[in-house]
Amino acid sequence: MADPRTHRLRLWTSAGTIAVLVLAVLLVPPLVQFDEQAVDLSRKLLPPSWDHPFGTDDLGRDLLLRCVHGLRISLLVGLVAALVATVVGTAVGAAAGALGGRPDRWLMRLVDAFSSVPHLLLGIFVVALFRPGVWPVIASVAVTHWLSTARIVRAEVLSLRGRPFVDAAVSGGASRWRVAVRHLLPAVLPQAGLAAVLMVPHAMWHESALSFLGLGLPSHQASLGNLVQNARSSLLAGYWWPTLYPGLLLIVPTLAVAGLAGAWRDRLNPRRRSELTL
Amino acid sequence: MLELDSVTAGYERRAPVFRGASLTVAPGESVGLLGPSGCGKSTLARVAALLHRPDAGRLVLDGTEVRAWRHRAPRARRTAVGVVFQQPRTAADPRLTLAEPLRAAGRRAEARERVAALAPAVGLTPDLLGRRPHEVSDGQLQRACLARALTLRPRWLICDEMTAMLDASTTAALVAAVETYREETGAGLLAVGHDRVLLNRWCDRTVEWKDCLPTAA
Question: Which residue, A223, A184, A221, is CA-closest to A203?
């Protein structure tokens, strides 16, 4: 266990990084009036400088601006997909755990069936059904990522269901719905929330993977996956910046979220928290 | 009448905890059930509280046989039997304040009145009611659990080792609270425990666990 100061440093660095990135994607596109799609072939593949801190790409577009726009789309896809996946996973897991018996067996076999297919492959299958766009990518990531949440929530609900306080509620006349809403869900929501936060960067990686394979967002739209994909040919010619910066923007949020989630996990786990304060 | 008739119950069908246990509690009567730990008396208490479906045998409550258990049982039937468990720590939801389970029963105005009347009866001061389980002692928490069992005015009360975790003065206070409630309402009591002295003083009659079982076995 890291000592409290390292711990706090990690927490604040992570939170600060996320705050900066979120502010950038929220404020830059409406406030900065340059067109991120504007092509200027006379300025193509310029290395990073004061005018273009991230350099320009092979069509002379400013990479900083495109990276921010790309991060905006990727973050949006990641957030919505993680949220949908968590809501679906929590609902399925809680229903399976709380109802038990046959509904539980059927729901869990459904989860097993989904899990038996590699999830990137299943995701590709889902996006292939629709026209390229933001929503098919969100659907594809959400459909393939509720499974682990469902398993976690079900296990937690199963362990809670046998506790005497649930017996007491049943004896006090509480309906199934009331027991679920009042006693079971409040106990699993922190876990589900943690799973959702951890899933955001994971979903961003999936968006990037799909876009990189040419199956995700339309290729003119700036997304982190598309930026890396478009930069591939320049990289072989020795132009490193069009690949490096979008790549960094994929890695940095992932590390920051992991740092935040670590702190959250410490809060959730009282035994570790007490070790910290002693 | 609360009548358990040759009840076989357990958590695995092939290996029930006990077979053919019978026990009767008359209205207004208090019956103590004495038995060593692990013999199945808590499971029998759960059956009597409609919380555990027996593998065989009958439970007759106020003249009608119980055929549905837990959520399947009608609300009025479930609430006719109040239950207090041995360990208040596991019997209280750690997320709810002590007052919340008391209020959960019935309408808001009525519930406030009920809480105001019950809290002093079990010896809970108003400042305790707003606390969460980890902020009070075992004894205070068990008082809240008793109050929770009494809010719905059950005709039958089942105390499963209610005082096993408590000191002598809290035990006396809780037993007194139960007896006051029974005097007011004429409720029947099944007190399960292994403390012979306590049960002999508390109850109209005490039954040995082995006398509940069929003699042939």
Answer: A223
CATH superfamily for B2-93+154-212 is: P-loop containing nucleotide triphosphate hydrolases (3.40.50.300)
Q: Is there a domain that residue A1 lies in?
A: no
Contact B85 A164 (CB under 8 A): yes
Residue A88 is assigned to a structural domain of this protein = yes
CATH number of the domain residue A139 falls in: 1.10.3720.10
Give the pLDDT of chain B (217 residues) as one tens digit per residue.
888 888 888 888 888 888 888 888 888 889 999 888 888 888 899 999 999 889 888 898 888 888 888 888 888 888 889 999 988 888 888 888 888 877 765 566 677 777 777 888 888 888 888 888 888 888 888 888 888 888 888 889 999 888 888 888 889 888 998 999 888 888 889 999 888 888 888 888 888 888 888 775 4
Contact A170 B87 (CB under 8 A): no
Give domain status of residue A216, yes or no: yes
Q: Which residues of B touch A183 (CB under 8 A)?
A: 93, 95
Integer Cα distance of A84 and A94 in angstroms: 15
Q: Which of A164, A176, A183 sits opposite B71 (nearest CB)?
A: A176
Tokens, residue A148: 């682990």
Which residues 6+ apart lie within 8 Å of A214 measured at CB? Answer: A229
CB neighbours of A46 closer than 8 A, spacing ≥ 6?
A52, A55, A56, A60
Inter-chain residue contact A173 with B149, CB threshold 8 Å: no
Nearest to A165 among B51, B76, B93 (CB): B93
Question: Minimal Cα–Cα distance from A251 to chain B, Å?
Answer: 37
Between CA B15 and CA B36 the distance in angstroms is 19
